[in-house]
Input
Amino acid sequence: GAGVSQTPSNKVTEKGKYVELRCDPISGHTALYWYRQSLGQGPEFLIYFQGTGAADDSGLPNDRFFAVRPEGSVSTLKIQRTERGDSAVYLCASSLLGDSTDTQYFGPGTRLTVL
Amino acid sequence: AQSVAQPEDQVNVAEGNPLTVKCTYSVSGNPYLFWYVQYPNRGLQFLLKYITGDNLVKGSYGFEAEFNKSQTSFHLKKPSALVSDSALYFCAVRDARSGYSTLTFGKGTMLLVSP
Output
């Protein structure tokens, strides 16, 4: 079956611009997660959705970052006034239920480059 | 706070030899432990997880991992390495104390298998 998909695969933008990154989870998965992976590091948690609501947004670095999941399926990560330090690979994952025993399945990521 | 340490940035092994990728963790409660593999320009692929029960967990592609509570370790192993196993490996932990906790990753270990 189809896995987690993310678009675009690459995004190059200029400092100060606004970007949107899209994630399409595995069908039927209620939980959705966003992570950020910088070069040479492991993924770092950003936000977790259970259904349509953000159950945990403690990983968002500041108020320039925002994410939505209006219908409980597709999610969009939005970054305002991008900075060079935002350059990273943004990974999306989904899991069936969202409890701590659940396996998270990851998409291929979006590589964001801020010039 | 929970954390994961992968003490080796890189592990080199010859094809056909056994391999071990080390992981130690720290959580307040009992751990749920995961191993993922990442190939170049691709997302993370799930290998195996320890939730409860048998300390030796078997996963995909012939990999296994041994949970050792006294040493707080969850080392990844394979009896006979393949060149195609060359990739970046991530260990991750969740705290089993509550119904939900974030997934915390280590920095990753690059495995290089030489022909």
